[in-house]
Design brief:
Distance between the termini: 32 Å
Number of helices: 16
Mean pLDDT: 94
Strand order of the largest sheet: 1-2-3-4-5-7-10-11
Structural class: alpha/beta
Oligomer: single chain
CATH superfamily: Glycosidases
CATH topology: TIM Barrel
Length: about 450
Amino acid sequence: MIYTERISMVNKKFFWGASTSAFQVEGGFGQGGKGIATTDVRYVPEGVADNKIASDHYHHWKEDIKLMKDLGINLYRFSFNWTRIMGDGTNVNQKGLDFYNNIIDECLKFNITPFPTLYHFEMPQHLVDLFGGWKSRECIEAYTKYAEICFKEFGDRVKIWGTINEQMIAIAAKDLNGNHGVNDEQAVKDMYQMSYNMSLAEKRAIALFRTMVPDGKIGPINSMQVVYPASPSPEDIEATQYAKDFLQNCFLDMSVFGRYPLAYVNYLKEKGWYPKTEEEDKVILTENKPDLIGINYYSSTCIRTKKENDNDSKLPPFYRNDKFILEKNPHIMKTKWMEFGIDPKGLYLGMKDIYERYQLPMIVTENGLAYSDILENNKVHDDYRIDYLKKHIEQVEKFVQDGYPLIGYSTWSFIDLVSSHQGFSKRYGLVYVDRTDSDPKKCCRIPKDSYFWYKNMIKK
């Protein structure tokens, strides 16, 4: 299928959007029939806001969408919370469906295209208690049923969808997937099994989507990994190739081709970590390809070959590998919250690599700057965020001018939202949410300077 056919649902226009995720923005804990998700019971440091109120989008959704309309965006990328739609992960909650129907209809009223992601880290705790969540193949059936309900309820109006957000993070973060209480060896083995089960669930959902929303488009939301070698040595070059396979290609190869990179397969089999599969899975995996790839990008990564005495104990599980280790990149600027640095050029380079490998159109679904914004005289002067967005959008423009198929750009995030372990000290939004970690106040909305800059940029 040629590119223009793939984006017919948007009449060949470019999407300018903004993004959120349910557990970070909604709040509304225990309201409207919402069940308990892993994100509701995750560890939160003392004195840091959790997601029970978050940005209180649950009560401010109408005001928020009016702010989107005034901003001039034509796409809102958000996520459904599985436990709002199905409180225990299995039984349908009509009040949850009504909540998202209201959001979708309000967006459409203002000509804003709704772009939901089915799974953005919120695993129903009931399914973890029942059979271990994503560790079990039973979760494949549960996710497929959940997807079917969403397609049936919203598919008449929603024509662009995300399947799973940042699978790499979802399988590795115990607070998100509920993979607690096991030794390190078992945790790593579980991680790769969860990844396989997620991929199979995604494929089954895509198969359903083809029959239920035949005029829609769907695809994974990828945490894009732009991997630079620490030096031109052959060893470091080889390490970066391994890193790319383990941090990105294993997920996208499975999404697009229905198979893993061979180096990844060989390594997992050597370690005894290769997931359990079934023969009939092959057909499902290979015959249900996505239409697009969502791109989440904040910064690049620098990699070198791992040495015998390197300590990787403090690294996230997906970086713990015999073949490579993280290295500092002296060529890009770092800030308090952007610990990997700021690298606008990486957005272009990463998307170029992804297109050349997968030949699918892309949409930037997350790109933004974290900062401890200060509200003064009811204003937020965030020139630093404007600079970040401007430089990254310039790379987006270059990418499109060079002929690559990009259907849109969506900044992270539309409003300030609760960060996983930093609460509201770490802010990404175009709109300030007036609350602190200890005092939610009224969660008043105050557009920042970056809001007005983005508004003018879209106009021009």
